């Protein structure tokens, strides 16, 4: 989907996604000391807002102006502040000082745009900072629930770790994970890629 399609999808008053943060963001970040964070492909801002609630100084980046406007309203509703930047991730230029947390959640791009975006994201990790990628995994097409039906935009763990290592990061966790999804017919399992890496001091 291009930015105009996302603008249209975000144009309603209701949130497209839930207002609660991604469960893996919470579990992987909850023990980190708050610092400067960037949420890349932040959409309507649910993860950025949660990070701000935890005391992080947050920047949210997304190419949908409509999504960012909803994120700004969402942040105001929760009485937190964040900086919002309209940009595609692969075109974004991070500040030289970097971030203590760079989160990329469900940025489902085909290659080569995906690798370019992940390389940009990894370059934004400051010394001692954390790089977190969570995305719909290729296996989800075969044995998972939901997510894009297009295999070209689905991730595998090895591709993400390759980018992380190439950017000088130390991989701390790299695996497929199961995300339980509530549906009208009961719970279903979705298969995600999860990679967490750290830049040495």
Topology, element by element:
Elements: H1 3-9, H2 23-29, E1 36-40, H3 46-53, E2 57-62, H4 65-77, E3 83-86, E4 99-105, H5 113-123, E5 125-136, H6 140-143, H7 157-166, E6 170-183, E7 186-198
Parallel strand pairs: 1-2, 1-4, 2-3, 4-5
Antiparallel strand pairs: 5-7, 6-7
What is the residue-mean pLDDT, rounded to a whole number? 92
Q: How many DSSP H or I helices? A: 7
Overall 3D form: globular
- Give the class-level CATH name: Alpha Beta
The assigned structural class equals: alpha/beta
Number of strands: 7
Estimate what percentage of residues fall within beta strands: 25-35%
The low-confidence parts are none
Q: Main beta sheet, described?
A: 7 strands, mixed
Taking strands numbered 1, 2, ... along the chain, how are they ordered across the largest sheet? 3-2-1-4-5-7-6
Q: What number of domains?
A: 1
What's the CATH architecture name?
3-Layer(aba) Sandwich
If you consult CATH, what is the topology? Rossmann fold
Which labels suit this protein?
Rossmann fold, 7 helices, seven-stranded mixed β-sheet, alpha/beta, 201 residues
Molecular structure report:
This protein has 201 residues and is α/β, with parallel strands linked by helices. It has a single domain (3-14, 21-198), classed as Vaccinia Virus protein VP39 (Rossmann fold), CATH 3.40.50. 30% of the residues lie in helices and 30% in strands. It has helices at residues 3-9, 23-29, 46-53, 65-77, 113-123, 140-143, 157-166; strands spanning 36-40, 57-62, 83-86, 99-105, 125-136, 170-183, 186-198. The chain has a seven-stranded mixed beta sheet, with helices on both faces.
């Amino acid at each position: 989907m291009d930015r105009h399609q996302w603008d249209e999808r975000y144009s309603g008053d209701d949130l497209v996604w839930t207002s609660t943060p991604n469960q893996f963001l919470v579990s992987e970040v909850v023990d980190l000391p708050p610092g400067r964070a960037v949420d890349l492909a932040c959409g309507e801002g649910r993860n950025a807002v949660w990070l701000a609630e935890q005391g992080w100084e947050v920047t949210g980046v997304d190419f949908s102006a409509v999504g960012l406007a909803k994120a700004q309203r969402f942040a105001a509703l929760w009485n937190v502040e964040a900086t919002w930047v309209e940009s595609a991730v692969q075109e974004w230029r991070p500040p030289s000082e970097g971030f203590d947390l760079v989160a990329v959640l469900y940025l489902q791009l085909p290659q080569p745009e995906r690798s370019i975006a992940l390389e940009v994201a990894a370059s934004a990790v400051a010394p001692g900072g954390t790089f977190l990628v969570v995305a719909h995994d290729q296996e989800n097409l075969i044995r998972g629930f939901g997510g894009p039906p297009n295999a070209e935009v689905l991730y595998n763990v090895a591709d993400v770790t390759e980018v992380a290592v190439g950017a000088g990061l130390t991989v701390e966790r790299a695996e497929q994970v199961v995300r339980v999804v509530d549906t009208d017919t009961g719970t279903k399992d979705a298969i995600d890629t999860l990679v967490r890496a750290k830049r040495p001091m």
